[in-house]
Amino acid sequence: MAHDERKYDPASIESTWQQRWQEASLFRAHDAGEKDPFYVLEMFPYPSGHMHMGHVRVYAIGDVLVRYMRMKGKEVLHPMGWDAFGLPAENAAIKEGIHPNLRTRDNIASFKAEMVALGYAFDWEREFATCDPEYYRWNQWLFLQMWKKGLVYRRTARLNWCPDCVTVLANEQVEDGTCWRCDSEVEEREMPQWAFKITDYAQELLDDLEKLGEWPERITTMQRNWIGRSTGVEVDFPVEGSDEAIRIFTTRGDTIYGATYVVLAPEHPLTDALTPPEKRDEVEAFKKACREQGKIERTNPDSEKLGVALGRTAKNPFTGESIPIWIGNFVLAEYGTGAIMSVPAHDSRDFKFAKKYDIPIKVVIQPTEGEQLTLEAMEDAFTGDGTLVDSGEHSGLSSAAAREAIAAFAQETGIGEATVNWNLRDWGISRQRYWGTPIPFVHCAKDGLVPVPEDQLPVRLPEDVEFKGTGGSPLETSETFKQTTCPECGGAAEREIDTMDTFVDSSWYYARYCDAKNDAAPFDAEKANRWLPVDVYVGGPEHAVMHLLYFRFWHKVMRDLGMVKSDEPVTRLVTQGIVMKGGAKMSKSLGNVVSPTDMIERYGADTVRMFILFAAPPEKDIDWNDDAVEGQFRFLSRLWRAVAGRLDEVEGAAVAASMEGLEGADLETFRKVHKTIEAVSRDLGERLMFNTAIARIMELVNHLSGYQPSAGAGQGVLRLAFESLATLIYPFAPHIGEALWHELGHEGFLLERPWPEHDPKAVVDDTVTLAVQVNGKMRGTIEVARDADTETVKAAALAEPAVQRHTEGKELKKAIVVPGRLVNFVVAG
Question: Which of 37, 438, 466, 547 has the greatest count of CB atoms below 10 A from its CB?
């Protein structure tokens, strides 16, 4: 069949090359060798059964980088696995009676088949699922190491409870008072739970954000705000008629002389002790209302601030005045000390509360400029810094100086101390679920909490469980799991029935990939340190203060355990935008989901990849467009015809190696090819602007449609163009790139070929266009030889008709020539 009659057939091309890549183990990463290691990782998926276009996008972004870096001579690690534990499989077990393991394994098989069909360059030899006992064994082992270091503890606390998911949620998993997964209203419950002391690393997690120069600023800003370091002072306010004192934390010690009331969190330990009998019913009703309101709503700046006066007073230790004690819905027990001093003149929330409940307001800071504050004229609090007034011996000090002096005074007199508070809270990891990692502890009546010996790991999930969905862990229904013996005394004991938060699984998986089949340790330190930190990590920005914070913490713990050397797990983070249709994020509930499988069957994997990569830069959202998908298919068909349909024109020709001897269209095309190589390389390696890189390739294809090479030298230029096109398109559309490379008569795989280098001389035009200004205003352009001297440039500029009109009859005072850019004539008259 003649080449010009052949059509682009993605189904045949893609299945052929996927099979050949697999047979050659082409994407295997080697743990040793002379090549520089380069680790590309995308956030691994929860295997829900089918991919969606968001998955297609994140893995396409990583895949481009993998192929490019391999061709740039790197030893590239690009693994894939499955974030396989989690609530959806357990909910399905409750509703449909299908065991989570069976559903998960079926989903993995389906998901993997779609990934293979898209041609992603994964090293499947490192594949694992987090529900594999061989993996979660090391979750348990690491948990025990953290226990030994004092980073794991068991506590009783008021916890976020999702009634629909029937489980506890970490603070980070509550979004605007609702569950991050199912959007149900979150309740509070007093429960025992296990927690990691992530707060022990709060300062380092904050400080090391400065090292993450290749992370998006919005992500580091979100983490900085979530960690929330605030410096201030803690001060004791003695309760009058009692031996108790209320310790408050404030960042504005300079306002303490203006504190006219104290507010406790409803859950504060002193609330019950300080509530007189006649107030008990009112206080209990208020506490119940606060629990129902939820923490997010309570601290929302726009929410109504409500309170109940306890009928007790405390003494302001700086003024000696008696001030009332309240409880308020806007104070949380877990922030600071769970109690605040209220300074209504200098805090807007306190001002509104004081006005609402007719509490005194006292001005103790005056602005350094402008009108002085008066209570009669104040419509809101003055919250800025200024000069202290009515503040005893500290009057006259600036706010900044007063904060230091007052903290020092509190320390010296023993009524308080300078301190630091954090918004970050310890990571509660207990989940009342089956489908997660069992916590490796037993409860013994004699010995208390006892860790499971390491040589008895993994503690495996049992099969004999009942999925009722009525609350509590299904593990409680398995007597074979629950009943055990104490490792210390050998007596009867019960296993811990909570499982670990599934964010534990994803907190260190990237390191397991470095040595995925190790059965003696989580991974070999030497192998891990060869690959880590991850060079490029691709994933969604929605994980900013969950996964992306948790795995930074876990990495630092592993460093302190001597398992890794680096301080951070990832060098460069790429956060991709979402894929939408009709202006809304694709979702089953909206009925706007596009199936990758359907698109592959219709157009081929390369077309799907090209649309996803061309539609927008990685960090921007994209809107699915059927016409644009069709357009990408047409382009790839045109590319196929442009090369495979003209093979007879380059038969026997050698690639043009230089510009020497070229002229006319041949020289222009040679330059066009090398300019394309330069631009695509820059867009791939530096900017990650895949859409503009693809646009450059399209321009080259368009150029070739009108190019008729001369006999001899021109045929070499055309072969250069064809081979360059096959190579440049390869990271984006690898199947057609590979096929075209072989159509051109080559053996082997493109992935093993070096990335093309541009000829520096070829990308520099012989002529350059200069702007011509008169008195700084643009009046025209001229084209001159790139190496033209200054006098030639001035003469050409003055000869330009538009310039002549603005200089004629005027005195030429100065001519400024900026080589390669512009000419500016300064004239008078």
Answer: 438
Angle, CA of 68, 71 and 74, to the nearest 5°: 95
The type of residue at 280 is: R
**Ranges 2-6, 31-35, 234-238, 392-396: which has the least confidence:** 2-6
The pLDDT, as a whole number, for residue 1 is 31
Tokens of 456: 């008895």
Q: What string of DSSP letters covers 204-244? A: HHHHGGGG-TBS-HHHHHHHHHHH-EEEEEEEEEEBTTSS-
**477-481 CB contacts, 8 Å cutoff, 24+ apart:** 481/438
Residue 486 is predicted with a pLDDT of 97
What residues does 578 pair with on adjacent strands? none
Q: Are strands 499-500 and 430-431 parallel, antiparallel or unpaired?
A: antiparallel
- For residue 340 the two structure tokens come to 């605040």
Rounded Cα distance between 146 and 559, Å, is 12
Q: What is the pLDDT of residues 591-625, one digit of tens each?
A: 888 999 999 999 999 999 999 999 999 999 999 99
Nearest-angstrom CA–CA distance, 751 and 678: 19
- Plot region of 368 (φ>0 → left; ψ -120 to 50 → alpha; else → beta): alpha
Amino acid at 109: A
Tokens found for residue 659: 């510009």
* DSSP per position, 536-593: EEEE-GGGTTTHHHHHHHHHHHHHHTTS---S-SEEEEEEPPPEEETTEE--TTTT--
pLDDT in tens, 572-591: 999 999 999 988 888 777 78
Q: Identify the band that residue 4 occupies on the pLDDT scale cut at 50, 70 and 90.
A: very low
Pairing of strands 584-585, 579-581: antiparallel
User: Is residue 184 packed enough to be buried (19+ CB in 10 Å), middle (13-18) or exposed (0-12)?
Assistant: middle
Quote the tokens at residue 360: 């005194």
Question: Which residue, among 138, 127, 137, 39, has the nearest Cα to 83 in the 3D structure?
Answer: 127
pLDDT at 189: 80
Q: Poorest-confidence range of 544-553, 726-735, 789-798?
A: 789-798
Please give the biggest Cα pair distance in the chain: 110
Contacts of 41 (CB under 8 A, 6+ apart): 62, 77, 78, 79, 510, 513, 534, 536, 537, 538, 570
Taking the C-alpha atoms of residue 262 and residue 420, their distance in angstroms, rounded to an integer, is: 20
Closest CA to 748 of 16, 20, 63, 34: 20
- The angle that helices 734-743 and 10-23 make with each other, rounded to 10 degrees, is 90
Position of tokens 């900085």? 224
At 202-257, the pLDDT tens digits run: 999 999 999 999 999 999 999 999 999 999 999 999 999 999 999 999 999 999 99
Helix (H, G, I), strand (E, B) or coil at 757: coil
Run of H or E residues at 40: strand 37-42
pLDDT score at 161? 82
- CB atoms under 10 Å from CB of 94, counted, come to 17
Question: Given a cut of 80, is residue 295 above it in pLDDT?
Answer: no
120's CB contacts (< 8 A; 6+ apart) are 59, 60, 62, 63, 80
Taking alpha carbons only, the member of 59, 68, 63 closest to residue 683 is 68
Order the strands of the 37-42 sheet from edge to edge.
Answer: 75-77, 37-42, 534-539, 570-575
Cβ-contact 384, 347 below 8 angstroms: no
Residue that wins the pLDDT comparison between 173 and 66: 66
End-to-end CA distance of the chain: 75
> Please, are residues 206 and 563 in contact by the beta-carbon 8 Å criterion?
no
Residue with tokens 């003696």: 520
Distance of alpha carbon 743 from the chain centroid: 41
Mean pLDDT computed over 701-708: 96
